[in-house]
Design brief:
Blueprint: H1 2-11, H2 13-32, H3 38-49, H4 59-75, H5 83-99, H6 102-124, H7 129-211, H8 216-246, H9 263-272, E1 277-283, H10 290-310, E2 318-324, E3 328-335, H11 354-362, E4 367-372, E5 378-385
Helix pairs in contact: 2-3, 2-5, 3-4, 4-5, 4-6, 5-6, 5-7, 6-7, 7-8, 7-10, 10-11
Catalytic activity: ATP + protein L-histidine = ADP + protein N-phospho-L-histidine
Keywords: ATP-binding, Coiled coil, Kinase, Membrane, Nucleotide-binding, Phosphoprotein, Transferase, Transmembrane, Transmembrane helix, Two-component regulatory system
Protein name: histidine kinase
C-alpha cells in the first residue's frame, strides 16, 4: 500500500502537492472564526497554501512568497493565528534545501532562522528568547541537513542514470560502427568470391566455345567447371547475405571461411580453369589464426584472379610460394605473362583488388608489394607477421 501511494505521488506530483495544500487550508479555516480579522486571515491562508502547489518547479519562489505572507502575519501582532498553514513554510524550506543550490538554501535557512526568532520574541518574550532560539536553531539545522542530504542523493542517482543512458548510447554507437565495419568486410569478401568465380567462369566459357565442335570432351569439362564454380559462388554469397540480414549464418551447413587448408583446392580450381599453377611450401608450417589464414587465402585467390585476367593468353605458368621464416610468412605469387596488372584506381580494382590485399596485410602489421618482374611476368609478394606486433 505504501509503495503504491509513493508511486502514485511520483507520477502525479502536482495533484499530491495540491491535496496537501488543500488539506492544510481546510484545517486552517477552523482557526479563522476565533479572531476578528477573518478576511485578512483568509487572504494570508491562501498566500501560505497556494504557492505550495508549485514547490517542485519553483522552490525558491514558493518559499519567498510564503515567507512574505508570514511577515505580514507577524505584523498583525497576533491578531491572526495561522499555525497549521505555517507548517507548510517548514516544508517549503526543506524543499529549498533539497532542490536549490547550496548558497540559496543557506540564505533560506537564514530567513527561516530570523523568522523563527521573531515569532519566539512575540510569543515568549525576551526572557525565554535564548532557550527558544536554541530550539529553533536545532529545528532549522535539522531540516536543512535532511533536505540537503536527500537532494544530494537525488542528484547522485540522477547522474548515475544519465551516465547509464550515455553508456548505453555509446554502446549502441559502437555496435553500429562494428556492424558497418563487418558489412565492409563482407563486401570485400563478396568481391573476392564473385571476382574469382566469374573470372574462372568467363575463361572456361571462352574455352568451351572454342572447343565445342573440335574437342567436345574438353568443352564438357569446361562446362562442368563453370557449373561447380557457380554453385560454390552462390553458396558463399548466400552465407554472406545471411550474415548481413540476420547477423549470423542461416545454416551451419554453409561453407566455413576458407583458410590454409583450402589452398590446395584453390590451386586445383585454377588448374582446371586452364592456368598451370604450382604450389610450394618452404620452411616449417605454423598454425595461423583464422584471420591470418583467411588473409593468405584471399591474397592468393586475388593474385591468381589477376593472373587470369591480365597476364594474357601466353602465360605458361604461375607459381604460389609460401615461405615460413622465424616470425614471418611470405606469400609470393608469380607468373610469366605479359606483366600487366589491374590499376588499383579502376572500377574493377575499386579498392578491393590489390588495394584490398594491402588492407588485409596491413591489418596484421605486414606489407605488400606488387609489380612486373624483371624478364617478364608479374609478382605479388606479401609479408605477414606470424605474431601480433
Amino acid at each position: 500500500m505504501y509503495d503504491a501511494v509513493v508511486t502514485w505521488t511520483r507520477n502525479h506530483p502536482r495533484v499530491a502537492d495540491g491535496a496537501v495544500a488543500g488539506a492544510v487550508f481546510l484545517a486552517n479555516l477552523w482557526y479563522l472564526d476565533q479572531y476578528p480579522h477573518a478576511a485578512v486571515g483568509l487572504a494570508l491562508t491562501v498566500a501560505l497554501c497556494a504557492p505550495y502547489v508549485w514547490r517542485r518547479e519553483l522552490p525558491a519562489t514558493t518559499f519567498a512568497v510564503m515567507a512574505l505572507a508570514s511577515v505580514a502575519q507577524w505584523l498583525l501582532k497576533g491578531d491572526v493565528d495561522l499555525f497549521p498553514a505555517n507548517l507548510l513554510g517548514i516544508l517549503a524550506f526543506y524543499n529549498v534545501a533539497a532542490r536549490c543550490r547550496r548558497l540559496v538554501s543557506l540564505a533560506a535557512a537564514g530567513v527561516a532562522e530570523v523568522g523563527g526568532l521573531l515569532i519566539a520574541l512575540r510569543v515568549e518574550g525576551t526572557a525565554e528568547l535564548a532557550s527558544a532560539a536554541y530550539g529553533i536553531t536545532i529545528l532549522i539545522v535539522s531540516v536543512w541537513i535532511w533536505g540537503y542530504t536527500l537532494g544530494t542523493r537525488r542528484a547522485y542517482l540522477a547522474s548515475l542514470q544519465e551516465r547509464a543512458v550515455r553508456l548505453e548510447r555509446e554502446r549502441d554507437n559502437q555496435a553500429r560502427i562494428a556492424a558497418a565495419a563487418e558489412r565492409a568486410r563482407i563486401a570485400r569478401e563478396m568481391h573476392d568470391v564473385v571476382s574469382h568465380s566469374l573470372s574462372v567462369m568467363v575463361v572456361q566459357a571462352d574455352g568451351a566455345a572454342h572447343s565445342l565442335r573440335g574437342q567436345p570432351d574438353r568443352a564438357e569439362r569446361a562446362l562442368e567447371t563453370i557449373s561447380e564454380t557457380g554453385r560454390s559462388a552462390l553458396s558463399e554469397m548466400r552465407r554472406m547475405l545471411g550474415v548481413l540480414r540476420d547477423g549470423e549464418p542461416e545454416d551451419d551447413s554453409y561453407t566455413p571461411q576458407p583458410g590454409m587448408a583450402q589452398l590446395d583446392q584453390l590451386v586445383a580450381d585454377a588448374r582446371r580453369s586452364g592456368l598451370p599453377v604450382e604450389l610450394t611450401v618452404d620452411g616449417v608450417p605454423r598454425e595461423l589464426s583464422s584471420g591470418r589464414a583467411l588473409a593468405v587465402y584471399r591474397i592468393v585467390q586475388e593474385a591468381l584472379t589477376n593472373t587470369r585476367k591480365h597476364a594474357g593468353p601466353n602465360v605458361s605458368r604461375a607459381r604460389v610460394r609460401l615461405w615460413y621464416a622465424e616470425d614471418t610468412l611470405e606469400v609470393r605469387v608469380t607468373d610469366d605473362g605479359r606483366g600487366a596488372a589491374a590499376r588499383p584506381d579502376t572500377a574493377e580494382g575499386g579498392g578491393h583488388g590489390l588495394v584490398g590485399m594491402r588492407e588485409r596485410v596491413a591489418a596484421y602489421g605486414g606489407s605488400l608489394r606488387s609489380g612486373p618482374r624483371t624478364g617478364g611476368g608479374f609478382e605479388v609478394v606479401a609479408s605477414l607477421p606470424l605474431v601480433t606486433r
